[in-house]
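Hi R.,

As promised on Friday, here is the backbone we talked about, encoded as structure tokens. Could you run it through your design pipeline when you get a chance and send me back a sequence?
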């Protein structure tokens, strides 16, 4: 099986890791000496989208050859009372170590045959083969047959990717942009002060939230603090008009509304269902922005207002770069995947959902977005995770082929550069950033992003551009909470990132 370049695209921690594992399963050698080739009979049938069913027949002569190698090895090292090491009779070895010998022969036969299949057949696995060695037994006589399923990379014609016409969004950061974002940053450090007034837009309310479905209790969230904004976004549904619903409420009041569960929620049975939601107001608080003084500048790791505003401008410039890249990337991927009408296995798509979310969070962290902005985007993606992941997987396979075509590689220096950049942005030690990425399994995502980015860069080098203004918008319309309506899930990628950062 041809060896793939590392780092697929969705990041795919699992696709890349399992691809490597799959190819390891189909290519591992037993010892330094290459075994004799087996006279295999291999039949490969298409078993569904990106799936192959493999049937293997191993003749008795090949099995006996492997058995002889195993017996020779045991005769050289077996310890049997009454015999010197290396002088135990073969018949005694066969009798005394019958089970051990059978297990060793089975393992070697499977490994050697899988290795040979990987060399001879044009399979490109993206997952570990569905193969359970414990379910097989090699017969005492006759040939040995076994079969398994394996997910493989889709087959498709590589689309034309040079000479694309792309709209390139551009924007110069203005003082007005900086002023607006300065206030948003100050909000992250604001004090919450209880007020004895009705709710206004922008206030923070503490509420007990009760969800019911067809009259039956579904879930309750106690003492949830949320900012009153136009949209309240949970992981599997959102309430538009949340600001109007809560406007004028006071402690002790109750508000009710219906929320429709996302069509791609984790809870399949609840997809598209309407849930009755009740908000019991416990208290109302208002934000008091911090003064722009030495204490505040110390909290944001700056020395004075000039440096703080410079940092804000740099943050905005990174966000503009991120939005430019996302817009350009989206156009590129739309062009090159227009003909990608092939299907993907649903189980593969489901397994990649969390990887796609981790990828998006990682990219937003690199771009300097705040945890609040990242959480709002994450909840939005959770509500359309299946279709998003299916689209991302197709993009990955196309970009992966382009990376192969262009002989694109990702080196350690590429990864080091990205880690150093993230460390500089977060004020952390690069070693700590690397350790966190490795601990969370996101380091493979990072390598995948770099390889895909290089593939996109190749496309852009040969593209024709038309500049258009980029509107810069803040996530002030959405209040996102790390809670689900249907499932008791409270830990999110953002939370893990914050906790790790505090360690």
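Update: got your reply. Pasting your designed sequence below so it's all in one thread:
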């Amino acid at each position: 099986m041809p060896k793939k370049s590392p780092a697929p695209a969705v990041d795919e921690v699992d696709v890349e890791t399992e691809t490597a594992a799959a190819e390891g399963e189909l290519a591992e050698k037993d010892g330094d000496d290459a075994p004799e080739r087996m006279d295999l009979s291999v039949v490969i049938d298409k078993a569904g989208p990106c799936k192959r069913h493999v049937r293997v027949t191993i003749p008795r002569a090949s099995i006996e050859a492997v058995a002889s190698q195993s017996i020779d090895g045991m005769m050289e090292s077996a310890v049997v009372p009454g015999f010197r090491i290396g002088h135990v009779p073969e018949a005694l070895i066969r009798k005394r170590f019958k089970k051990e010998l059978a297990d060793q022969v089975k393992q070697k036969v499977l490994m050697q045959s899988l290795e040979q299949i990987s060399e001879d057949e044009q399979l490109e696995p993206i997952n570990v083969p569905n193969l359970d060695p414990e379910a097989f037994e090699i017969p005492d006589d006759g040939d040995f047959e076994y079969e398994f399923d394996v997910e493989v990379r889709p087959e498709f014609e590589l689309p034309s990717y040079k000479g694309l016409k792309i709209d390139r969004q551009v924007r110069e950061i203005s003082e007005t942009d900086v002023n607006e974002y300065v206030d948003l940053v100050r909000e992250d450090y604001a004090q919450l002060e209880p007020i004895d007034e009705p709710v206004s837009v922008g206030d923070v309310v503490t509420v007990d939230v009760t969800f019911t479905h067809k009259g039956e209790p579904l879930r309750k969230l106690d003492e949830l603090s949320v900012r009153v904004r136009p949209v309240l976004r949970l992981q599997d549904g959102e309430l538009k008009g949340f600001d109007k619903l809560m406007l004028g409420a006071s402690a002790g009041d109750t508000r009710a509304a219906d929320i429709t569960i996302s069509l791609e929620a984790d809870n399949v049975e609840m997809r598209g269902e309407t849930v009755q939601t009740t908000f019991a107001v416990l208290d109302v608080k208002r934000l008091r922005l911090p003064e722009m003084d030495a204490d505040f500048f110390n909290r944001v790791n700056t020395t004075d207002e000039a440096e703080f505003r410079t940092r804000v401008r740099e943050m905005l410039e990174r966000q503009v770069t991120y939005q430019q890249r996302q817009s350009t990337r989206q156009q590129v991927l739309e062009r090159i995947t227009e003909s990608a009408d092939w299907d993907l296995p649903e189980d593969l798509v489901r397994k990649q959902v969390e990887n796609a979310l981790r990828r998006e969070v990682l990219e937003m962290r690199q771009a300097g977005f705040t945890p609040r902005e990242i959480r709002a985007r994450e909840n939005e993606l959770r509500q359309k995770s299946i279709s998003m992941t299916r689209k991302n997987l197709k993009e990955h396979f196309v970009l992966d082929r382009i990376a192969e075509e262009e002989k694109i590689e990702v080196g350690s220096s590429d990864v080091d550069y990205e880690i150093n950049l993230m460390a500089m942005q977060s004020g952390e030690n690069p070693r700590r950033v690397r350790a966190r990425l490795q601990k969370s399994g996101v380091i493979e995502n990072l390598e995948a992003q770099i390889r895909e980015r290089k593939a996109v860069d190749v496309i852009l080098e040969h593209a024709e551009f038309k500049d258009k203004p980029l509107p810069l918008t803040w996530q002030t319309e959405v209040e996102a909470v790390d809670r689900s309506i249907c499932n008791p899930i409270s830990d999110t990628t953002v939370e893990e990132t914050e906790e790790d950062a505090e360690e």
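One thing I noticed while checking it: The longest strand covers residues 274-288.

Thanks again,
M.
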